[in-house]
């Protein structure tokens, strides 16, 4: 059953005149009584390969009836292509028809332009389209590059838990995980659900972040990262939110905020370069059909130094820029997308790393600065999207951490294991979080994150 | 804040006499009034590096009080080690004490032998031990090698959904995911839970496998794989089961069972070789302290051809081998671990790929063989563990698939999207599943899968 990938054939891996076999699905077909042109696709690259079939083939009558998405095995000779575009095509010696398409007239992926909404409803068939095929390959390239970047730099991948019983991170936005009877759950004497009888012996949820867990490994192995699914039960029906999405969360020991920011910049540039090197074919499609100038933007980003700016300076810039914003700006406010994009797109004209935010708008675990007003937090803002990464140095001083927990309404005892890291050989450390689907969306220009994950999960939507 | 990893220093990356800085935690310390020896560890490799501190250091009085797990930054000169074992050590010019250990006498990870049960109760601190540190690095190496193996071979990584509303895969063993009120859920007129009011608008669960989903991408991109968490709400308190574990599931189009089996063999050998090449230090620890002969076993496995054997032949072998088994053997039974291990360890003396199992003991989606009694399924059995991989060619013929679903008590309409793959350009395809924790357990010799994942989840256990 050995056969060649279309990617290898188009890349010239085999000499002209070689006899090879390729297997795939028909993208388009032009049939006439003397010879037919079949564009065959196997997902290994953006382009299909052209198959020339002539009437001498024993099953030519059946070949003339083929339609989009029929599956074939084609054996033939590689020849240089006469037409424009591709370098090579295949003159078929034999074509085995593997699978037909039942009722081609109603086939949901007929070769025409479909809306992204229509494609989402057919998420099991949409990888057969140019758009979703290209997204899938770029997504894969980005994921591989992320693992490679961290591995080459001595980071260890850690699988932090998906199911967590730490209900202290804001249970309102979390999904409960249970095996209790949903109609008649066991109750305690106080009439509450008796989770002691549940599978885990207590109430359990899906994780919203692996950060606190991965810090425990950071404080033993120095450089670690997570890359796994995280969950938010938020009812936000936007193009930037999913109920289930993948996060990358590196954590570095003996690191200050500057080290964390540099790691974020280096990682983004590394993965931009990887996708430019490895998936130029798919990027050209996105550049032509989805977002003009995309390749140029990625090339620029992968070479430009990211500007560092303090939050406090950014506020001054926004207040004095003369631009009218929907949300007014003042020291202490959380920046909106319009502010972030102004800074990156108009003021700097490139990526910016904003640093040292007011403690009131950031999480309890971020390290307090000496001014006692700001914390060592950072956001990476990129032109065309705004915030793409958020991170911080973590509070490594137990007394200050405890005070911040209490200020935030948390009970330090619930975090005894997180506090232990500060009791036993505490070190300065920090890290960041990257929403992987937002990265894929940014790199492909595909606006809605529901179109860059195989089977998107959102409010009222968990099909397939 | 730039410093060197201990791994690089011990590997001889820096010339002798170089002045460098290393940062890490104390493993052990021997202090006396004239000079002290500190073993400093940063997780970058198995071994700590020896620091020699003499009394001329300005803070020598404090250095003499240091204990296990205190964190330090040490700047000094690389010198050749006089003692046995390591090649290099560091003569400290200065030692900065970063973090102390609060009450060393009660520090839970004091330098002595702890039971694995005790370590599990301190899962946030156990990565500081030799055992869990080594497991973590080997686990990382295996994960990276798996991604590399598939990526180099043209596979695309697909993130199949974690939350699924397909309740047809055997809901009894699945975790429900919900945001409904757990005490008073909304009810339908029939008194059942009204999941139409739940977050996803229907009852949702945690996935038990990404296979059916990933087949949709296989039938468009030819070579794909998943690597993500999966869940079983089984109350089995064994050393081989977790409620949350990671699975690797490749799926190959235009492939028969032989192709799938070869892929499984190639992948295992690739990852065994990777860990032998990259983590010899940790493997030597496991070989000495956990399972004698482990390195030899991995070396042999990575070179040996895996024997193929039909289930039917295996049954004959087991019936006639003269050995008394706890569970009797007869054609049609599912093999137990004792049978699998006899075949691999005693009969073959190496890994075996068992093929073509009775349809009654296998899943509906496995391809029916021409004998109408067996399906094109395979299990990889390895010495010392038994089944490590299970896979099959998938049923690509719609009529037979439908018949098998009905036989298995399933409603084909619930699987309309899975059936569509057989209606529109169906192709022979197949794949396998590898439980990642079982692989890590096998490679390290660490018997209980709870000790090869950071924070294990099992019945009555979801701490941290």
UniProtKB/TrEMBL annotation, chains A, B:
GO terms for cellular component: cytoplasm. It is found in: Cytoplasm. Signal peptide: none annotated. GO terms for biological process: asparaginyl-tRNA aminoacylation. Keywords: Aminoacyl-tRNA synthetase, ATP-binding, Cytoplasm, Ligase, Nucleotide-binding, Protein biosynthesis. It is an enzyme of class 6 (ligase). Belongs to the class-II aminoacyl-tRNA synthetase family. Homodimer. This is Asparagine--tRNA ligase. It comes from Catenovulum maritimum.
């Amino acid at each position: 059953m050995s056969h060649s990938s279309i990617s290898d054939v188009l890349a010239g891996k085999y000499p002209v005149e070689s006899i090879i076999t390729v297997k795939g699905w028909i993208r388009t077909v032009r049939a006439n009584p003397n010879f037919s042109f079949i564009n065959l696709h196997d997902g290994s690259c953006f382009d299909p390969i052209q198959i020339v079939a002539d009437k001498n083939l024993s099953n030519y009558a059946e070949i003339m009836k083929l339609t989009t998405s029929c599956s074939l095995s084609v054996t033939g000779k590689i020849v240089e292509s006469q037409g424009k575009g591709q370098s090579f095509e295949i003159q078929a010696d034999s074509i085995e028809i593997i699978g037909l398409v039942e009722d081609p007239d109603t086939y949901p992926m007929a070769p025409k332009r479909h809306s992204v909404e229509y494609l989402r409803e057919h998420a099991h068939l949409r990888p057969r389209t140019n758009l979703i095929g290209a997204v899938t390959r770029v997504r894969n390239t980005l994921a591989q590059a992320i693992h490679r970047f961290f591995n080459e730099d001595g980071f260890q991948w850690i699988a932090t838990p998906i199911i967590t019983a730490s209900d202290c991170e804001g249970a309102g936005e979390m999904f409960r995980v249970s095996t209790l009877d949903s109609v008649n759950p066991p109750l305690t004497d106080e009439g509450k659900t008796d989770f002691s009888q549940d599978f885990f012996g207590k109430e359990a949820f899906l994780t919203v972040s692996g950060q606190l867990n991965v810090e425990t490994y950071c404080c033993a192995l120095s450089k670690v990262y997570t890359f796994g699914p995280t969950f938010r039960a938020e009812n936000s029906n936007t193009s930037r939110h999913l109920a289930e999405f993948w996060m990358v969360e590196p954590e570095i020991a003996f690191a200050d905020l500057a080290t964390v920011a540099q790691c974020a910049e280096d990682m983004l540039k590394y993965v931009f370069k990887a996708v430019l090197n490895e998936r130029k074919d798919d990027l050209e499609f996105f550049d032509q059909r989805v977002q003009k100038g995309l390749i140029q933007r990625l090339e620029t980003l992968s070479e430009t130094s990211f500007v560092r700016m303090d939050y406090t300076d950014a506020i001054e810039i926004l207040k004095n820029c003369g631009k009218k914003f929907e949300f007014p700006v003042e020291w202490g406010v959380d920046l909106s997308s319009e502010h972030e994009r102004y800074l990156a797109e108009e003021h700097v004209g490139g990526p910016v790393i904003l640093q040292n935010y007011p403690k009131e708008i950031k999480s309890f675990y971020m390290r307090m600065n000496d001014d006692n007003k700001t914390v060592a937090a950072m956001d990476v803002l990129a032109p065309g999207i705004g915030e793409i990464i958020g991170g911080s140095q973590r509070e490594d001083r137990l007394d200050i951490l405890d005070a911040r927990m209490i200020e935030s309404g948390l009970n330090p005892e619930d975090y005894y294991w997180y506090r232990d890291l500060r009791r036993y050989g505490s070190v300065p450390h920090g890290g960041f979080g990257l929403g992987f689907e937002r990265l894929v969306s940014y790199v492909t220009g595909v606006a809605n994150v529901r179109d860059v994950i195989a089977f998107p999960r959102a409010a009222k939507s968990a099909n397939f």
